[in-house]
Specification:
about 190 residues; about 75% helix
Protein backbone atom coordinates (compact mmCIF):
# COMPACT_ATOMS: atom_id res chain seq x y z
CA UNK A 1 0.00 0.00 0.00
CA UNK A 2 1.47 3.18 -1.11
CA UNK A 3 0.18 6.23 0.50
CA UNK A 4 0.97 9.76 -0.22
CA UNK A 5 4.68 10.47 -0.23
CA UNK A 6 6.06 11.53 3.11
CA UNK A 7 6.43 15.25 3.36
CA UNK A 8 9.88 16.62 2.71
CA UNK A 9 11.40 17.86 5.88
CA UNK A 10 11.45 21.64 6.01
CA UNK A 11 14.70 23.40 6.51
CA UNK A 12 15.99 22.68 9.97
CA UNK A 13 15.18 25.42 12.47
CA UNK A 14 17.76 28.15 12.54
CA UNK A 15 20.04 28.38 15.56
CA UNK A 16 19.65 31.39 17.87
CA UNK A 17 23.04 32.61 16.65
CA UNK A 18 21.86 32.45 13.03
CA UNK A 19 18.62 34.24 13.92
CA UNK A 20 20.67 36.97 15.61
CA UNK A 21 23.00 37.28 12.64
CA UNK A 22 20.06 37.54 10.24
CA UNK A 23 18.40 40.13 12.51
CA UNK A 24 21.55 42.21 12.54
CA UNK A 25 21.93 42.10 8.77
CA UNK A 26 18.25 42.80 8.10
CA UNK A 27 17.55 45.38 10.81
CA UNK A 28 20.86 47.02 11.81
CA UNK A 29 20.36 50.04 9.57
CA UNK A 30 16.74 50.45 10.65
CA UNK A 31 17.70 50.36 14.34
CA UNK A 32 20.44 52.91 13.68
CA UNK A 33 17.95 55.22 11.95
CA UNK A 34 15.51 54.77 14.84
CA UNK A 35 18.22 55.70 17.34
CA UNK A 36 19.58 58.64 15.31
CA UNK A 37 16.13 60.23 15.09
CA UNK A 38 15.66 59.98 18.85
CA UNK A 39 19.13 60.68 20.27
CA UNK A 40 20.74 63.94 21.25
CA UNK A 41 23.95 63.07 19.42
CA UNK A 42 25.32 60.62 16.90
CA UNK A 43 27.53 59.09 19.61
CA UNK A 44 24.48 58.48 21.80
CA UNK A 45 22.71 56.83 18.86
CA UNK A 46 25.67 54.56 18.19
CA UNK A 47 25.76 53.64 21.88
CA UNK A 48 22.05 52.80 21.76
CA UNK A 49 22.54 50.57 18.70
CA UNK A 50 25.48 48.82 20.33
CA UNK A 51 23.52 48.25 23.55
CA UNK A 52 20.46 47.11 21.57
CA UNK A 53 22.40 44.43 19.75
CA UNK A 54 24.34 43.47 22.88
CA UNK A 55 20.99 42.89 24.59
CA UNK A 56 19.72 41.01 21.54
CA UNK A 57 22.80 38.79 21.68
CA UNK A 58 22.31 38.06 25.37
CA UNK A 59 18.65 37.31 24.70
CA UNK A 60 19.18 35.63 21.32
CA UNK A 61 17.08 32.67 22.42
CA UNK A 62 14.14 35.10 22.80
CA UNK A 63 14.54 36.64 19.34
CA UNK A 64 11.47 36.07 17.19
CA UNK A 65 12.14 33.64 14.37
CA UNK A 66 9.74 35.37 11.99
CA UNK A 67 11.57 38.16 10.15
CA UNK A 68 8.50 40.41 10.33
CA UNK A 69 8.55 40.22 14.14
CA UNK A 70 12.28 40.82 14.64
CA UNK A 71 12.32 44.49 13.71
CA UNK A 72 9.58 45.58 16.15
CA UNK A 73 11.23 43.46 18.86
CA UNK A 74 14.55 45.23 18.26
CA UNK A 75 12.83 48.63 18.29
CA UNK A 76 11.36 47.72 21.69
CA UNK A 77 14.84 46.90 22.99
CA UNK A 78 16.23 50.11 21.46
CA UNK A 79 13.42 52.07 23.11
CA UNK A 80 14.52 50.77 26.52
CA UNK A 81 18.15 51.57 25.72
CA UNK A 82 17.16 55.12 24.74
CA UNK A 83 15.30 55.49 28.04
CA UNK A 84 18.44 54.36 29.90
CA UNK A 85 20.56 56.92 28.04
CA UNK A 86 18.02 59.63 28.82
CA UNK A 87 17.90 58.73 32.53
CA UNK A 88 21.68 58.67 32.68
CA UNK A 89 21.91 62.11 31.04
CA UNK A 90 19.38 63.53 33.51
CA UNK A 91 21.31 62.09 36.46
CA UNK A 92 24.57 63.51 35.11
CA UNK A 93 22.94 66.90 34.62
CA UNK A 94 21.53 66.91 38.17
CA UNK A 95 24.95 65.93 39.52
CA UNK A 96 26.58 68.71 37.51
CA UNK A 97 24.04 71.20 38.88
CA UNK A 98 24.68 70.05 42.45
CA UNK A 99 28.44 70.33 41.95
CA UNK A 100 28.08 73.78 40.41
CA UNK A 101 25.94 74.90 43.37
CA UNK A 102 28.42 73.43 45.85
CA UNK A 103 31.35 75.14 44.15
CA UNK A 104 29.59 78.46 43.53
CA UNK A 105 31.70 81.32 44.76
CA UNK A 106 34.84 79.21 44.77
CA UNK A 107 37.48 81.06 42.77
CA UNK A 108 38.93 79.17 39.86
CA UNK A 109 42.69 78.74 39.99
CA UNK A 110 44.79 80.64 37.51
CA UNK A 111 46.23 78.10 35.03
CA UNK A 112 49.55 79.94 34.89
CA UNK A 113 49.80 79.79 38.70
CA UNK A 114 49.16 76.05 38.58
CA UNK A 115 52.00 75.61 36.10
CA UNK A 116 54.33 77.75 38.17
CA UNK A 117 53.38 75.78 41.28
CA UNK A 118 54.16 72.50 39.55
CA UNK A 119 57.52 73.79 38.35
CA UNK A 120 58.38 75.00 41.86
CA UNK A 121 57.27 71.67 43.39
CA UNK A 122 59.49 69.83 40.89
CA UNK A 123 62.40 72.06 41.84
CA UNK A 124 61.86 71.29 45.53
CA UNK A 125 61.66 67.54 44.84
CA UNK A 126 64.89 67.65 42.86
CA UNK A 127 66.63 69.59 45.65
CA UNK A 128 65.32 67.12 48.25
CA UNK A 129 66.66 64.25 46.17
CA UNK A 130 70.13 65.75 46.45
CA UNK A 131 70.02 65.74 50.26
CA UNK A 132 71.34 62.76 52.20
CA UNK A 133 68.52 60.26 52.92
CA UNK A 134 68.51 61.02 56.67
CA UNK A 135 68.34 64.78 56.05
CA UNK A 136 65.59 64.30 53.47
CA UNK A 137 63.56 62.23 55.94
CA UNK A 138 64.06 64.83 58.67
CA UNK A 139 62.99 67.76 56.48
CA UNK A 140 59.95 65.98 55.03
CA UNK A 141 58.75 64.79 58.45
CA UNK A 142 58.74 68.42 59.57
CA UNK A 143 57.51 70.11 56.37
CA UNK A 144 55.16 67.56 54.84
CA UNK A 145 54.00 65.48 57.78
CA UNK A 146 53.69 68.43 60.16
CA UNK A 147 55.65 66.89 63.04
CA UNK A 148 57.46 68.98 65.62
CA UNK A 149 61.19 68.44 66.19
CA UNK A 150 60.35 66.59 69.42
CA UNK A 151 57.95 64.28 67.55
CA UNK A 152 60.56 63.69 64.85
CA UNK A 153 63.06 62.80 67.59
CA UNK A 154 60.62 60.18 68.84
CA UNK A 155 59.96 58.85 65.32
CA UNK A 156 63.69 58.62 64.49
CA UNK A 157 64.76 57.45 67.97
CA UNK A 158 67.32 60.23 68.48
CA UNK A 159 67.55 63.04 71.06
CA UNK A 160 65.55 66.20 70.35
CA UNK A 161 68.69 68.35 70.45
CA UNK A 162 70.26 66.22 67.72
CA UNK A 163 67.16 66.66 65.58
CA UNK A 164 67.30 70.45 65.96
CA UNK A 165 70.97 70.63 64.95
CA UNK A 166 70.52 68.25 61.99
CA UNK A 167 67.38 70.12 60.93
CA UNK A 168 69.24 73.44 60.90
CA UNK A 169 72.04 71.94 58.78
CA UNK A 170 69.59 70.19 56.41
CA UNK A 171 67.59 73.40 55.91
CA UNK A 172 70.78 75.31 55.16
CA UNK A 173 71.80 72.72 52.52
CA UNK A 174 68.28 72.72 51.04
CA UNK A 175 68.24 76.53 50.91
CA UNK A 176 71.55 76.47 49.06
CA UNK A 177 70.25 73.88 46.59
CA UNK A 178 67.12 75.95 45.95
CA UNK A 179 68.86 79.30 45.66
CA UNK A 180 69.11 80.77 42.20
CA UNK A 181 72.71 81.36 41.06
CA UNK A 182 71.61 84.74 39.67
CA UNK A 183 70.38 85.75 43.14
CA UNK A 184 73.76 84.83 44.61
CA UNK A 185 75.57 86.98 42.04
CA UNK A 186 73.36 89.96 42.88
CA UNK A 187 73.97 89.42 46.60
CA UNK A 188 77.73 89.32 45.98
CA UNK A 189 77.57 92.54 43.91
CA UNK A 190 75.54 94.31 46.58
CA UNK A 191 78.27 93.65 49.17
Amino acid sequence: MEGPPSPEPDDPPASPEQVFEDAYRECGTAVLGYALRRSASRDDALDVVAETFATAWRRRADLPVDVDDVRPWLFGVARHCLANVSRSARRASRLGDRLADALAGTPLPDPSALTEGRAEAQRVREALAELAPDDRELVTLIAWEGLTPAQVATALGVPAGTVRVRLHRARTRLRALLSDPADELEADRAQ
